[in-house]
Design a protein that fits this description.
heterodimer; A: 198 residues; alpha+beta; Arc Repressor Mutant, subunit A; Glutaredoxin; 2 domains; elongated; B: 430 residues; alpha/beta; Rossmann fold; Ubiquitin-like (UB roll); de novo design (two linked rop proteins); four-stranded parallel sheet; four-stranded mixed sheet; 11% strand; globular
């Protein structure tokens, strides 16, 4: 199999379908809805991903991941494009995409805050951490704050139970979170977005 | 990403001995630590010879079921079968309480890659897929880098280490579905489908991904393979017991002074793990309950902690080793709330194929919520027992059974908690 020579994004095909798709700090608050495979980069990624499987369907999750990596969410038009590339129906792609919880099916805030409240986090005040995030960001679960910065959601076990409560902010884990630490975390994210205290 | 949780017991720190060492993440550092020496040995061995060593070592699956690894490999068709064979590494760690595979991958990704390749050689696989749960982005980044490095240096791909043997490896990431951690659910997901488990037979070794012979092994299982191959089966058997040999990573969470991952020989008493290794319970509070093997195993009471923590020992006390992930609950814990939280998880993660599971996990959650809100009736206890019956052994996979283990044991062992909520709208937690 090729070693990725001559490929402009420098990704080895072995990892072309496994790039993080909740980017650390998406530029701007609005998620995009750009076509996936019209650009050279998009076609190249498609080709590398397809090269790893004996048929087309297994490339479905990697391509949905790519759509979210690129646009911040998985739009209807992205699903249609992927269906077309894999010779599947858009309805089939939709049925698979909606099975998995990580695909955002509408644009979300710049920071997706996911608070684990599963058993080990529950024992370490996970629900209070969740409440505090909602308070500090002035949102309700799953809604995006008016400034477009935050979407806060409850999430099932993140697999870091020894570091409870665990919170995922886009593609980063924040560990050992207590309700008392939440205002500081929210402030840091606001500062990072260059809107200090807004 | 400090790693403060290493156990000081050097003698059982085998698989985890390089955790916490930044340099071990990269190929150079890994080679300095003896990395890929076992692979070098494996490429000169016949596949069945490798399987033989692993069989003799007694290594059992670390993903929860505890099936003997070497035997699983021996179910794969032999050299006379010319279909493509596949290895899937199950890195979809998502059992509440478990966080060991994440530690292996984020500190020693090359260890996993090496284990995957040796296993692939043993089962005559030409392609390995590491299916990592989607949420693990920081870990995925580290693993991606390691895979790219290993390809570059010729440890993966064509003619590995000049042996003439070739094997590819692809990192495939999930998108949030607990059930993708069930081996046939994982195969469905990898094929670009909803992660719906399949009826067995046919077993993966005959009809796995893409309809071809496939073996699915857990991260920790595969990561134990290089040291077994390097040192031999007898060496590995010096730890643990006859039926449960070797060491195991213990993921300890909940009310503990020092929660974290600790590698220990199988068999260490649970009491020692909680009070010695993990430093006991914060503020000197008393223990109320512990779930020893991840959220889908049965509750144990404080007087059941002296059992042997092996696959057999925990079975004897009506629970199971599972992923060796004790969730510790102190005396301030409302066990009804804890059980409701666990049930909610299974209701949320049911894939919906089987009626018993789809409806039953939801009913259990609703009844527990009702009791928690002071609207329960004594009849609810019987209803929950009845649901335990309905949810056991009637579905394609064991997700439904998984909620029964903690539920039924909590009803049996902590009935006073349920009655206090139902009859007096109070809690027995202190």
């Amino acid at each position: 199999m090729s070693g990725g020579e001559g490929m402009s994004d420098g990704l080895h095909p072995a990892v072309a379908g496994s790039q993080p798709y909740m980017l650390a700090d998406r530029q701007g608050s609005a998620s995009r809805d750009e076509p996936l495979f019209e650009s050279e980069e998009g076609r190249e990624r498609l080709e590398k991903i397809l090269s790893r499987y004996p048929s087309k369907r297994p490339a479905l999750l990697p391509l949905l991941n790519y759509a979210q990596e690129r646009n911040g969410w998985v739009s209807g038009s992205a699903m249609e494009e992927i269906a077309d590339a894999l010779e599947l129906t858009p309805a089939y792609v939709h049925s698979v995409a909606t099975f998995y919880t990580m695909y955002n099916r509408r644009p979300i805030g710049r920071y997706l805050v996911q608070v684990c409240t599963n058993i080990s986090c529950h024992l370490n005040r996970g629900e209070e951490v969740m409440e505090r995030f909602l308070q500090e960001t002035g949102t309700r679960p799953g809604e995006t704050s008016e400034d477009g910065l935050f979407t806060v959601m409850e999430v099932e076990c993140l697999g870091a139970c020894g570091f409870a409560t665990v919170v995922q902010v886009n593609d980063e884990y924040v560990e050992d979170v207590t309700p008392e630490k939440v205002p500081g975390i929210v402030k840091e994210l606001r500062d990072r977005a260059g809107q200090g205290g807004a | 990403m400090a790693y403060p949780h290493r156990h000081e017991n050097e003698t059982t720190t085998l698989l985890s001995r390089h955790m916490g060492e930044e340099k071990a993440r990269h190929l150079d550092g890994w080679l300095e630590r003896g990395g890929y020496e076992a692979l070098r040995k494996a490429v000169d061995m016949e596949p069945d010879e490798i399987t033989g060593v692993v069989k003799d070592s007694g290594l059992r699956g670390r993903g929860g079921a505890g099936f003997p690894t070497g035997m699983k490999w021996s179910f794969m068709p032999g050299a006379d079968d010319d279909r493509p064979h596949y290895l899937c590494c199950n890195a979809d760690e998502s059992e509440p309480g478990a966080f060991k595979d994440r530690e292996i991958m984020r500190w020693t990704p090359h260890l996993l890659i090496e284990g995957c390749l040796i296993a692939a050689r043993a089962i005559r696989a030409g392609h390995v897929y590491i299916y990592v749960r989607g949420e693990f982005f920081p870990v995925i980044r580290i693993l991606n880098d390691a895979v790219s490095e290993a390809y570059e240096a010729g440890y993966i791909g064509e003619d590995i280490l000049g042996s003439g043997w070739s094997c590819d490896l692809t990192v495939h990431i999930g998108a949030g579905a607990y059930i993708a951690g069930e081996e046939t659910g994982l195969m469905s997901s990898l094929e670009g489908r909803r992660a719906e488990p399949r009826v067995k037979p046919p077993f993966p070794a005959q009809h796995g991904i893409f309809g071809q012979p496939t073996t699915v092994n857990n991260v920790e299982t595969l990561s134990a393979v290089p040291m077994i191959l390097s040192n031999g089966a007898d060496w590995y058997r010096q730890w643990g017991t006859e039926k449960s040999p070797g060491t195991k990573l213990w993921c300890c969470s909940g009310h503990l002074n020092r929660p974290g991952n600790y590698e220990l020989a199988l068999g260490a008493p649970l009491r020692d793990i909680i009070y010695d290794v993990c430093g006991g319970i914060p503020d000197g509070r008393d223990l109320r309950a512990v779930i020893p093997g991840g959220s889908s195993t049965a509750f144990l009471t404080p007087d059941e902690l002296d059992c042997e923590t092996t696959y057999e020992g925990l079975k004897e006390v009506g629970s199971s080793l599972g992923t060796a992930s004790p969730i510790v609950m102190d005396e301030s814990t409302c066990l009804l709330k804890a059980m409701r939280r666990i049930a909610h998880f299974y209701a949320h993660e049911s894939c919906g194929q089987c009626v018993q599971c789809r409806e039953g996990t939801e009913w259990v959650t609703k009844i527990l919520e009702r009791i928690e809100h002071g609207e329960g009736k004594m009849q609810d206890i019987d209803n929950l027992y009845d649901l335990c019956e309905q949810l056991t052994g009637r579905t394609i996979c064991v997700l439904a059974d998984s909620v029964v283990f903690p539920l039924k044991s909590s009803l049996d062992k902590f009935r006073d908690e349920y009655e206090a909520h139902i009859l007096r709208d109070t809690c027995t937690a202190s």
